[in-house]
Write a structure and sequence with these properties.
The structure holds two protein chains of two kinds.
Chain A: E1 4-10, E2 18-21, E3 31-35, E4 41-45, E5 59-61, E6 64-66, E7 73-75, E8 91-92, E9 94-97, E10 100-105, H1 109-112
Chain B: E1 9-14, H1 18-30, E2 35-41, E3 47-48, H2 53-57, E4 67-69, H3 71-76, E5 80-83, E6 87-91, E7 96-99, E8 104-106, E9 109-112, E10 116-118, E11 131-133, H4 137-149, E12 152-156, H5 160-171, E13 175-179, H6 192-204, E14 207-210, E15 215-220, E16 224-229, E17 234-236, E18 239-242, E19 246-248, H7 251-255, E20 264-266, E21 277-279, E22 284-286, E23 289-290, H8 294-309, E24 322-324, E25 332-336, E26 346-352, E27 357-364, E28 367-374, H9 380-389, H10 397-400, H11 404-409, E29 427-429, E30 434-435, H12 436-446, H13 451-458, H14 468-479, H15 498-507, H16 513-520, H17 531-542, H18 556-560, E31 563-564, E32 570-572, H19 583-595, E33 600-603, E34 609-614, H20 619-628, E35 641-646, H21 660-671, E36 680-685, E37 699-704, E38 707-712, E39 724-729, H22 732-749, H23 756-763, H24 765-772, H25 776-793, H26 797-802
Parallel strand pairs in B: 1-2, 1-9, 2-5, 9-21, 11-18, 12-13, 12-18, 13-14, 20-22, 35-36, 36-37
Antiparallel strand pairs in B: 3-4, 6-7, 7-8, 10-19, 15-16, 16-17, 22-23, 24-25, 25-28, 26-27, 27-28, 29-30, 31-32, 32-34, 33-34, 37-38, 38-39
Helix pairs in contact in B: 1-8, 12-14, 19-20, 21-22, 22-25
């Protein structure tokens, strides 16, 4: 099903190698957008699979983020924890069009109807 | 999923404790998916590590930390967990079990892991409120509640469990008495000499002992008020804990007509008298023996799982066992015989009362059959292995009692364990029952190369840590790289070590992280969460005023200038110079706490006030309000100068020799804001009574009539280290110069994340003295370099952010109109 795309303003609002949490109240949980050194972007449900730490506060290097609570390393593209830790958080579709960030939120049943 | 559609055989496990779940874990490892599994647990929790309840009681661990399998684990493995529902009946003819809630389920295989019950003697007063056992989370809750609301506790029983309960309650602030029926403590594991040493040590720690004490009655009307002993002694108490032992819980098995004696009788394959019903753990009796320690229970789990998985060859053999006590700083080990059985046995004893050391070994026919160690137990596992191997140790006899290093040094064997000769079944980690074979297998299969990896994958050395040295040795043996002599690289991105990188930054004039990474051929172009903060610090320290800090390479606390908490909120700690504050500052803190609904306000160990539970978006406003009252960041989040703790000194104290508070303020004004390899804490005590605890700080000053003693490299925390003495000086100006120089030497030469204590342990206090005491010019240079770098960092980070700097750190991104 096509997700519900929402716009979150210019890419420059997100620091390079940084992240911002979004003002959306989604059933999946808090959502964060990550900006890499090469300006590529990823979006994840902002909860580490371990103890729900805010991944948006982690150190970003390569395409991974390290959770600030217990140093789990999460792959930004898939949301999966690096071995030997196991678990994953949901990855969401994200696009940058004309310098604007769009995140695709899964539709709720209501919106789909 | 429709359960009826599942045609697999149904395994029901009665008991959600350690033994039952370990068996299920082993079964999943050996034959995943063979059974549909349902677990009944009488307690309303998931599976937790019962052994660690004493650590929860003592405050060393939380309940969450002792959970072994989370609810997700049960779900992920397709296991139905029915917790809080005890099985009340087994119908072997119908092959069903029935639970307290009335649920009846058919089984193909049944596993009994019902554990044990606390022994309760027929005593008047047992049912009074304020009396409990020490067996499960509910008991610990009762004890913790009592510790909060009441003062006096009596523990009945001087065995392992009773002593750990007493120690835990003492740690929680209660006054504790322990009643023991026998003349000495832990008499089943320790001989009289070691038992007495243990009693003496615990007595010094404030536990009152009543040995030879037979409890006659628990007194009280509304709740427990005391314990009456048969010899007329009586002890007042608000809480009475019964810890006199356990007995196997056999009620269900007995009612089902299974063969029981003291425990549920099992054969070598862990089957009960009904071949479709297995039993493991504290509820079983095997060849006349019942079990209370974890190691043989892990072996049972393995054997039972093998038979459930269809392997009929596995056999449970009960091995020699060892015991240790979980009381911080009290080291006890015991295995096998405690005393010579007759004249043919030999006892060899080593005793050093002033150091609190005791060792006794017992030899029979040239073989080791028992060991009791007190005070120094690192050779315990070695003795245990000698006992299990039943090897003739006559050749080592004269040296054996002095421990492994000494015994083997004289025997021509290499010092340290011979891993090549060690059997794969040799147990390395007693807590988790991990063998040499399992560790080496994991290292090879998964390519593990660090202790942390081995811990994660095998659980070896992940519990009490006593076997850490052995695991490191095995790692070296299996990988061919000695972990201790191997070069410590900064992280997996590079082969370079900390010192090389620091030297190259200076020598080659490297001024950016990219330049450093290029110079050393970093494997990952952007580095990782380990090397980035380290490089950022090294560059900042080397090029003050020139290198600009990379906030993206900082841990969140240093980036947002507050401490992240487990729920994602932050704590805010304003600076209080030397621990001094004013009514105006306190008013401001109080108003902020009220205005922003800050849930917890706490005084820290470093003489500051901590505001806990601040929402991230509120941080700039909170800081703004604090700034208005003159309060600035306390850097309680920084790898940098944290606090200077002081006592009141000569201004008020009748013992004070110098103005310790004033000196503390001066030291803090000089050092605040500095970035260092790890956190740095200072203290100034006004006299040798040392009320500011200066001798466990990174740098401490102890004032004396003749001047100031400067001490360095102390640490509280996990590895307590008392400071080394650096020098004595006559004036405050000299103290400041030494302190600045010491800070700078540490900043320039320690490895990132190395506290001063391990740094000085590594380089030696003589080296530090040589640089700071014997070389006055060098000292002045260091001090000047410190002051120079301070000129670039002494700006309050809160003030900038309260005015709007870095706003993106604090506010979430709003959604704009729909696309």
């Amino acid at each position: 099903m096509e997700p519900h795309w929402k716009r979150f303003g210019p890419l420059d609002n997100i620091p390079v190698q940084g992240s911002r949490r979004l003002c959306v109240d989604h059933r999946l949980g808090p959502i964060a957008v990550f900006r890499m050194a090469d300006d590529s972007v990823f979006a994840l449900v902002d909860e580490c699979p371990h103890k729900q730490g805010p991944l948006s506060e982690g150190i970003i290097s390569g395409n991974t983020v390290t959770c600030p609570l217990h140093n789990w390393v999460i792959d930004l593209a898939s949301g999966t924890a690096q071995a030997p830790d196991e678990g994953s958080t949901s990855a969401l579709p994200v696009r940058v069009v004309d310098g604007q960030v769009y995140v695709g939120l899964p539709m709720t049943a209501e919106q789909a109807a | 999923m429709n359960m009826n559609a599942d045609t697999r055989e149904h395994l029901i496990v009665i008991g959600n404790g350690m033994a039952g779940m370990r068996t299920v874990e082993e079964l999943l490892k050996q034959e995943p998916g063979k059974y549909r599994i349902t677990v009944f647990g009488a307690e309303p929790h998931v599976n937790y590590n019962r052994i660690m309840l004493s650590s929860v009681l003592a405050g060393d661990k939380t309940i969450d930390e002792i959970v072994i399998n989370t609810r997700e684990w049960y779900e992920d493995n397709g296991i139905t967990l029915l917790s809080g529902d005890a099985v009340t009946k087994i119908d072997r003819d119908a092959r069903t079990v029935t639970s307290a809630s009335g649920l009846t389920l058919p089984y193909d295989r049944l596993l009994l892991a019902t554990g044990s019950k606390p022994l309760a003697p027929p005593l008047p007063g047992l049912s009074l409120p304020g009396v409990c056992a020490f067996r499960d989370i509910a008991d610990v809750d009762k004890m913790l509640t009592a510790a909060r609301t009441h003062k006096r506790a009596v523990v009945i029983g001087g065995g392992l469990l009773g002593l750990e309960a007493a120690w835990g309650l003492k740690q929680r602030g209660m006054s504790v008495a322990l009643v023991h029926l026998m003349p000495t403590l832990m008499e089943r594991q320790l001989d009289a000499a070691a038992g007495q040493m243990l009693q003496r040590d615990l007595d010094r720690r404030g536990i009152a002992f009543f040995t030879n004490g037979q409890t006659e009655e628990i007194m009280g009307t509304e709740r427990a008020e005391g314990v009456q002993l048969a010899d007329g002694r009586s002890i007042p108490a608000d809480l009475v804990v019964l810890a006199i032992g356990i007995r196997p819980n056999i009620d269900l098995a007995k009612a089902a007509g299974l063969q029981v004696s003291r425990g549920i009788v099992v054969y070598d394959d862990m089957r009960t008298s009904d071949p479709d019903i297995f039993a493991v753990g504290e509820c079983v009796e095997h060849r006349g023996q019942v079990f209370g320690l974890v190691a043989p229970i892990w072996d049972q789990a393995k054997v039972c799982a093998a038979h459930l998985a269809g392997d009929d060859t596995a056999v449970f053999v009960s091995q020699a066992l060892s015991t240790s006590l979980k009381i911080t700083g009290v080291d006890v080990f015991s295995a096998g015989a405690l005393l010579a059985a007759d004249e043919a046995d030999d006892e060899i004893t080593l005793r050093d009362d002033s150091r609190g050391l005791y060792k006794k070994i017992i030899l029979r026919d040239g073989k080791l059959v028992g060991a009791v160690l007190y005070g120094e137990v690192s050779d315990g596992q070695w003795y245990l292995q000698l006992m299990r191997d039943k090897e003739d140790v006559s050749a080592l006899r004269e040296r054996l009692v002095f421990g492994r290093a000494f015994a083997e040094a004289g025997s021509g064997k290499p010092a340290g364990p011979d891993f090549a000769a060690m059997a794969d079944s040799n147990q390395i980690c007693g807590c988790n029952g991990v063998s040499k074979g399992a560790i080496v297998g994991a290292i090879k299969e998964k390519g593990l190369c660090s202790l942390a990896d081995v811990r994660k994958h095998t659980k070896a050395s992940a519990s009490c840590g006593q076997c850490t040295g052995l695991v490191e040795g095995l790692l070296a043996f299996a990988t061919g790289v000695d972990a201790k002599t191997a070069k410590k690289t900064i992280c997996e991105c590079t082969e370079a070590g900390h010192d090389e990188v620091r030297e190259a930054i200076v020598a080659q004039g490297l001024k950016t992280m990219d330049a450093v990474r290029a110079a050393f051929g970093w494997k990952k172009p952007e580095g990782c969460h380990k090397c980035r903060p380290a490089l950022n610090y090294y560059l900042l320290c080397t090029w003050p005023g020139e290198y600009s800090d990379d906030s993206r390479s900082r841990f969140v606390n240093e980036r947002v200038h507050a401490n992240i908490q487990k729920d994602g909120t932050y704590s805010v700690i304003p600076r209080m110079w030397g621990g001094l504050t004013t009514p105006a500052e306190l008013h401001a803190i109080a108003s902020v706490a009220e205005k922003f609904n800050i849930p917890t306000v706490k005084v820290t160990g470093g003489q500051r006030i901590d505001l806990l539970g601040v929402k991230k978006d509120d941080l700039p406003a909170v800081w703004g309000d604090l700034n208005k009252a003159g309060l600035v960041s306390g850097h309680a989040y920084a790898k940098g100068l944290r606090t200077v703790k002081t006592c009141v000194g000569s201004e008020w104290c009748r013992f004070g020799t110098q103005d310790s508070t004033g000196l503390g303020v001066k030291l803090e004004k000089m050092t605040w804001g500095s970035w260092t390899p790890h956190k740095v804490k200072l203290a100034v005590s006004g006299c040798p009574r040392n009320c500011a605890e200066a001798t466990i700080k990174d740098l401490g000053v102890v004032c004396v009539e003749a001047g100031y003693d400067i001490v360095v490299g102390g640490n509280g925390g996990i590895d307590v280290r008392v400071t080394d003495s650096l020098t004595r000086v006559a004036t405050e100006a000299e103290v400041l110069e030494y302190a600045g120089a010491f800070m700078q030497l540490y900043r320039e030469e320690a490895h990132y994340l190395e506290r001063t204590a391990p740094w000085i342990a590594r380089v030696g206090i003589d080296y530090v003295k040589q640089r700071l005491v014997e070389d006055p010019d060098g000292r002045r240079d260091l001090h000047e370099r410190f002051l120079l770098s301070q000129t670039f960092v002494q700006d309050d980070p809160w003030a900038e952010r309260a005015k709007g700097a870095e706003a993106h750190e604090f506010a979430p991104l709003p959604a704009l109109e729909e696309a």
